[in-house]
């Protein structure tokens, strides 16, 4: 070879990112190494998990008869608390607003949730930190949370509520307690929680006065006595062992069981917790329904499912699997204006981007929702935000009705597992429905 001609450079392969040590993981190692503290954030699990997207409806054809969308009725109402309560809650739609604490959310955000939910005939829920005038005043149906922390707990407020929800756990952090960092403990929040201003607060992960289902039975009876047996009592559990937790909640006397899956949002907790503890919502629904069926209590004790519900299809799928209603947290905040790209410049200044902002615990939310900052809060107009939530709830309901009619159902509660198939073997096994195009349900013999 001519010594003046260079050998061609060997072609180089593309730089390859490790699937195990991906860019996010590397950044988290660097962050941990630089600070020595674990990451705290809001929102739910962000990694890809089996979810309602892995299910499809079959729709009617020759063997099933669909309903006509413009002429034939498809009911959406639901009654919660029919087991013992003298005054069950009657809702026009099967979508409720999940418990989100005042403290994590601003007063205007609480008011907007109340306005939006009431316009659609559904309920809102308090949270850690007690009942505010904003939400009681604007919610026609308000569920009062009874939490391990007891922050803001007031028997008079219990009597002012329309139902009581005993919170055992949350899907984002089953087995964990709440967190509200000092930045958000404003004078008002501090007063309501009887806490010092500006100091980080970590609430208890378990109730101080009961340890198991037998004690819970006594606690529920106390709550019934305080409220003259009028109000439905819900028990909310984070999805971990939903079969047993549902059965034990029923045994303890619940009127309604709320099962919150691991995609469920939180105001703040350790990221390692959010991403690694609990089971996906999809995996939890069938187990909870099975527990109710085995006890002969399905539809007698109502089931509310939450954790990553985003649209009418999710609602319809949860109902088809046997839930009576769903609850939404994150999606309701997005409808109010959370993570709106119109604040992009401010998200960038916070080191994030619209759609990924989850440092809700820091209280610097440009949209004025997850903050106690007086100036930021002013950005949220509760009337406009409430209308946006009502619109969104209306769309979700119309979507669920559209699907139900296509499956030939005159009420969304008539949707059933038989209307569903799964796209993946995992989803088929978790939801106990056949893999699409087959009659095979994993774990069951037969099928083709
Ligand atoms: C900002 C925020 C605050 C929350 N605060 C509470 C709370 O005080 N008590 C509670 O039981 N759950 C709380 N949750 C969880 C919700 O009640 C609900 O379980 C969850 O948001 C449902 O999942 P989703 O956000 O995917 O809809 C909170 C969630 C968010 C997003």
Please give a quick description of this structure.
The protein has 448 residues and is α/β, with parallel strands linked by helices.
- The number of E-state strands comes to 16
Individual helix count: 15
Q: Give the number of domains.
A: 1
Mean pLDDT: 95
- Report the biggest beta sheet as strand number plus sense, adding barrel if it closes: 8 strands, parallel
Rg calculated over all Cα atoms = 24 Å
Strand order in space, largest sheet: 5-15-14-12-11-8-7-6
User: What is the share of helical residues?
Assistant: 25-40%
The CATH class assignment is Alpha Beta
What CATH architecture would you give? Alpha-Beta Barrel
Which percent range describes the beta-strand content?
Answer: 5-15%
Structural class: alpha/beta
- CATH fold-level assignment: TIM Barrel
Q: Which small molecules are bound?
A: flavin mononucleotide
Rough shape? globular
What name goes with the CATH superfamily? Aldolase class I
C-alpha termini separation: 65 Å
Biased composition (Low complexity): 116-126
Keywords: Oxidoreductase
Family: Belongs to the glutamate synthase family.
Region (Disordered): 113-134
């Amino acid at each position: 070879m001519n010594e003046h001609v260079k050998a061609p450079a060997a072609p180089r392969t593309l730089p390859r990112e490790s699937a195990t040590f991906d860019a996010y993981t590397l950044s988290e190692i660097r962050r941990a190494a630089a600070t020595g503290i674990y990451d705290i954030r809001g929102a739910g699990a962000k990694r890809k998990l089996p979810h309602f997207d892995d299910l499809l409806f079959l729709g009617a054809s020759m063997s099933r008869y669909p309903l006509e969308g413009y002429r034939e009725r498809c009911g959406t109402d639901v009654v919660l608390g029919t087991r013992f309560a003298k005054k069950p809650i009657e809702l026009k739609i099967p979508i409720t607003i999940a418990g989100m604490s005042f403290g994590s959310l601003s007063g205007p955000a609480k008011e907007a949730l109340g306005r939006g939910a009431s316009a659609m005939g559904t309920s809102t829920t308090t949270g850690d930190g007690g009942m505010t005038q904003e939400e009681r005043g604007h919610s026609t149906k308000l569920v009062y949370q009874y939490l391990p922390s007891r922050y803001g707990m007031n028997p008079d407020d219990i009597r002012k509520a329309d139902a009581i929800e005993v919170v055992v756990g949350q899907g984002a952090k089953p087995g964990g307690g709440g967190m509200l960092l000092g930045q958000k403990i404003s004078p008002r929040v501090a007063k309501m929680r009887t806490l010092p201003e500006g100091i980080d607060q970590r609430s208890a992960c378990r109730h101080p006065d009961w340890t198991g289902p037998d004690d819970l039975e006594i606690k529920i009876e106390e709550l019934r006595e305080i409220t003259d047996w009028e109000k439905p009592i819900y028990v909310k559990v984070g999805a971990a062992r939903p079969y047993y937790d549902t059965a034990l909640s029923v045994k303890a006397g619940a009127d309604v069981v709320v099962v919150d899956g691991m995609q469920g949002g939180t105001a703040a907790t350790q990221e390692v917790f959010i991403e690694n503890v609990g089971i996906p919502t999809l995996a939890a629904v069938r187990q909870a329904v099975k527990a109710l069926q085995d006890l002969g209590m399905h539809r007698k004790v109502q089931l509310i499912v939450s954790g990553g519900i985003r649209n009418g299809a999710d609602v319809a799928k949860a109902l088809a699997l046997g839930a009576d209603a769903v609850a939404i947290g994150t999606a309701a905040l997005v409808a109010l204006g959370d993570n709106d790209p119109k604040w992009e410049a401010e998200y960038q200044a916070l080191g994030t981007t619209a759609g990924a902002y989850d440092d809700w615990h820091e209280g610097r939310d440009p949209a004025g929702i997850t903050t106690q900052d007086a100036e930021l809060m002013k950005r949220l107009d509760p009337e406009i935000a409430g209308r946006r939530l009502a619109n969104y709830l209306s769309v979700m309901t119309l979507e669920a009705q559209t699907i139900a009619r296509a499956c030939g159902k005159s009420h969304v509660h008539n949707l059933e597992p038989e209307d569903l198939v799964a796209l993946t073997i995992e989803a088929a096994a978790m939801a106990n429905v056949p893999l699409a195009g087959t009659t095979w349900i994993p774990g069951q013999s037969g099928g083709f």
